[in-house]
Specification:
The protein is of the alpha/beta class. The chain has six helices and twelve strands.
């Protein structure tokens, strides 16, 4: 087994094709992910079929997107699959996980938050970002959005307007069928990207997530 370190803390590539993170809570897993060990270190395989960020990396998103990121506002935390890997990486950072679903939030807390001291759960509606202004530090380095709502891009922009620092990064997982059930997916992607441009954000990458996620794309943008 060949393990190559990347320049991103605790992110490695195994056998030239699989991304993994060093498990900062050895012996504990979070979504039945595969775990491998070598030289006394435990690595959690970052499954691209379970994490849209892992899928984006597999499809060409540069890992540099995580360089110099110490704080993330994560919209749509769900049960914490992707956040658990970001937590491995941001050992000296903080991740704010916003989730509105009560059952999912409890699973997120029990699965991830109770085992990690760099993850803060926020049981709020991401459509109302002003409600957690006393909790989230201003000037976060990244806003990540993975919410299955027709206005998902507006939700992202509204949060980034308030919390993202100048030069900060955006990752938007576009779920095409949450926006329009019948329109061609490429037109949906184009429309969401154009909206983000009009809100003042600079688009750097647009990546479709097939075959890992059907009718999804990842948008990488920055706040000028």
């Amino acid at each position: 087994m060949d393990i190559v370190k990347t320049k991103i803390n605790n992110l490695v590539i195994i056998d030239g094709e699989r991304y993994a993170t060093v498990n900062t809570t050895p012996g504990i897993t979070f979504y039945k992910e595969e775990v491998v060990k070598k030289d006394g270190i435990e690595y959690r395989i970052w499954n691209p079929y379970k994490s849209k960020l892992a899928a984006a990396f597999k499809n060409g998103l540069p890992i540099d997107v995580l360089e110099d990121v110490k704080s993330i506002l994560y919209l749509g935390a769900s049960t914490g699959t992707t956040i658990s890997h970001l937590s491995d990486i941001l050992t000296d950072g903080i991740i704010y996980g916003v989730e509105i679903g009560p059952r999912v939030m409890m699973e997120f807390i029990n699965r991830v938050v109770k085992n990690r001291n760099n993850v803060i759960p926020l049981f709020y509606d991401a459509r109302l970002p002003e409600n957690y202004i006393d909790i989230v530090d201003p000037g976060v380095d990244m806003v990540y959005c993975d919410v299955a709502q027709p206005d998902q891009t507006k939700i992202l922009a509204d949060n980034a307007d308030i919390y993202l620092r100048r030069g900060g990064k955006i990752l938007l997982a576009i779920k095409a069928r949450s926006i329009d059930a019948v329109a061609p997916v490429k037109k949906i992607y184009e429309g969401e990207v154009e909206y983000l441009r009009k809100r003042g954000y600079k688009i750097l990458e647009i990546l479709e997530l097939e075959p890992y996620e059907k009718e999804h794309a990842m948008v990488y943008a920055v706040k000028p």
